[in-house]
Amino acid sequence: MGEPRPSDETTADHSRDALTTDPVHQGAHTEHRLAVRKTYKLYVGGAFPRSESGRSYEVTTPDGHFLANAAQASRKDARDAVVAAHAAVAKWSGATAYNRGQVLYRVAEVLEGRRAQFEHEVSVSEGIDAHAAARVVDAAVDRWVWYAGWADKLAQVLGGVNPVAGPYFDFSVPEPSGVVAVVAPQRSSLLGLVSVVAPVIVTGCTAVVLASEERPLPAVTLGEVLATSDVPGGVVNVLTGRTAEVAPWLASHMDVAALDLAGAAPEAVADLERAAADNLKRVRRPDAHEDFAAEPGLSRLRAWVETKTVWHPIGV
Amino acid sequence: MRFDYSPAPESTAVVDIASSYSLFIDGAMVDSLDGSTFKTVNPATEEVLSEVVDAGSADVDRAVRAARAAFEGTWSRMPGRERGKYLFRIARILQERAREFAVLESLDNGKPIREARDTDIPLAAAHFFYHAGWADKLSYAGLGEAPKPYGVVGQVIPWNFPLMMLSWKIAPALAAGNTVVLKPAETTPLTALLFAEVCQQAELPHGVVNIVTGAGETGRMLVEHPDVDKVAFTGSTEVGKAIARSVAGTRKRATLELGGKAANVVFDDAPIDQAVEGIVNGIFFNQGHVCCAGSRLLVQESVADELLASLKRRLLTLRVGDPMDKNTDVGAINSAAQLARIRELSDIGEAEGAERWSPPCDLPDRGFWFPPTVFTGVSPAHRIAREEVFGPVLSVLTFRTPGEAVEKANNTPYGLSAGVWTEKGSRILWMADKLKAGVVWANTFNRFDPTSPFGGYKESGWGREGGRHGLEGYLHG
């Protein structure tokens, strides 16, 4: 870590104080003013609805302090999110790789600009101090930038021209598979989250993301970032709520093409994989030892693309 | 006036078929521990060719244990360079014994000797040759510095291209350092059992390749065996889904090559004669027993009449009959069960209102036969436009605009292959981009090559076979 940024001083101090009083809302400890608390909502189709079920649930710090009420998504919310994601596929996958790269980079810019808010939410959600939270936000922004740069390189790295034994021009290209349902990592509320969302959308797929159940606040805020950074509505949809309740609906939904089980409970994986078999979703199994701080490699990108091979005769 | 060819039968003298076969486990042909036996017949004559084992669980278990021992003891420890040399040997032996394999394949499968000779066997050898070269170059496959094999691979293959499917499965698995237990289809086990001899001639270490014959139950026991690390399956989407469910929650990996309902899209500027050849090749090659067969012809309305007249004229020249005759274009349907399915779906096609047409042809009295058949007036809702017939049955639909062609072509849960016929290069690339299929043939159809990834989108399966992409199914980083 280099020089402390201005935000380190303000946010860090506030949040340290705040943890004993009002851990979410900076400024709440001043005596002259009542804080305006944030309502955490879903992010579906570019809008921020509450759950149609009208339910919410309490989000707390790891040591039990109340942070906020988050929307508790229902089956209907999950289906609405899939509809929005499905509708967004054609335009998003049809955008040029250059354009998608630009949009992703714009997300990183806006993320960086909102870093104080993310540092605070990561700190209170994960129970880590402000400096550790700042490092998490650094890594998350850098991770997003890393994936942004893949948009216009993936086809060259994963595609190719095949030297077939005959007079044919034969090439293979990676293509997005469609809607990817993502069960976000449960513990890593921001770095883990961006590590699973960015690879989905950089390929041209769209995402329905089920945020960490206990630590959903950075995910909701990420939705706000996405909504204000040129990502078309529906490309990323963020649901908060009970993983065990919502994940099975995503796993069995016939318009979902692929499933990332990163944050699925070990005892739920078999059932989710079985449900996914109904339409032969591409499934990425959870890795209990996944290190989100390490460079991720191509495995997530590869998981969400199909290889299309085109043959054409050569002649005069 | 009709000029006919004289029969040009291929001699069967090059093949010795034993009256019965045992299982190939740990480098030797061994008797079954708990299996029963069944007969494999020549579908063109219904004559019994031989008796093979319907392997039981003890047989499968013994084969998996042999594969495990070979994986731990020799194959995974061997330098890639040496593994590759074994694969080169196998490729060469297949080339040297090509005629014997081609004849045996035709006898057991019913496919025309011309196709077995010119397509199946050369491609099988080519797959071993291609993958042999990967064995010592795996660090260049884009999967990390030192990608690792999974271990024991359980492989279940179909009856439409018995030796070719064997090579698609075994060659990449071995190149990557895995060992295999392969179950050939119950109606076409003989070339796999002959392949056991090739392994012996190549002096492949014992247990690296094991072959257990049997039906669906044997396949299920292999797929579900707890000591199998990876499953590779080619077959129906229905069975593929069952396999996906069975590996759910386990550490097993799976690759699946499943069904298809390919659209072969013909635009009004396509060269009609070439398109007709492509349509014929697309659906009548190998009696239509091809998962990527062009079973839905989508023809632009303005040329539909002309194209259909030309297609029907061409079909009058197709020669259906004795697979061993080198002039034969369309051979026997592989089994009585498959013939029944083709008949059933064709009858449904008629009942649902499509118009059925076949060229007049005299079918042999014995054996399983179905004439090349064309349905016109097919709507996208008809079952013959939605379900995989896996036979020489073509459904013809029409379209007006490129957008409509794309929409109709993609209107299926499958996504294995598609064809496009047009003179316009920009349209070819536009269509290739829009079609949801793992393989798009433009102005050609049913081309295969070991360097070229093959596999499906959506419910046509998981993963690819062939090329660098195919290796991904047998290695992890």
UniProtKB/TrEMBL annotation, chain A:
Q: Which GO terms describe its molecular function?
A: oxidoreductase activity
Q: Where is the composition biased (Basic and acidic residues)?
A: 1-19
For this UniProt record, the keywords arranged alphabetically read as follows: Oxidoreductase
| Domain of life assignment | Bacteria
- Domain Aldehyde dehydrogenase intervals: 51-283
**Which SUPFAM superfamilies does the UniProt entry name for this protein?**
ALDH-like
| Segments of this protein annotated with the region Disordered | 1-31
Q: Coiled-coil region(s) at which residues?
A: none
Q: What's the protein name?
A: Aldehyde dehydrogenase family protein
Protein source organism? Motilibacter peucedani
From TrEMBL, chain B:
Gene Ontology MF, one: oxidoreductase activity, acting on the aldehyde or oxo group of donors, NAD or NADP as acceptor
PROSITE patterns for this protein: ALDEHYDE_DEHYDR_GLU (PS00687)
Q: Which PANTHER family match?
A: ALDEHYDE DEHYDROGENASE-RELATED (PTHR11699)
Q: Where is the active site?
A: 257
Read off the Gene3D superfamilies from this record. Answer: Aldehyde Dehydrogenase, Chain A, domain 1 (3.40.605.10), Aldehyde Dehydrogenase, Chain A, domain 2 (3.40.309.10)
Q: Does the keyword Oxidoreductase apply?
A: yes
Q: Which organism is it from?
A: Motilibacter peucedani
**What UniProt keywords apply to this chain's record, in alphabetical order?**
Oxidoreductase
Name of the featured protein = Aldehyde dehydrogenase (NAD+)
Tell me which residues make up the Aldehyde dehydrogenase domain. Answer: 36-475
Short name of any one Pfam family annotated for the protein = Aldedh
**Which superkingdom heads the taxonomic lineage of this protein's source?**
Bacteria
What SUPFAM superfamilies has UniProt attached to this entry?
Answer: ALDH-like (SSF53720)
Family of this protein: Belongs to the aldehyde dehydrogenase family.
Return the InterPro entries for the record. Ald_DH/histidinol_DH (IPR016161), Ald_DH_C (IPR016163), Ald_DH_CS_GLU (IPR029510), Ald_DH_N (IPR016162), Aldehyde_DH_dom (IPR015590)
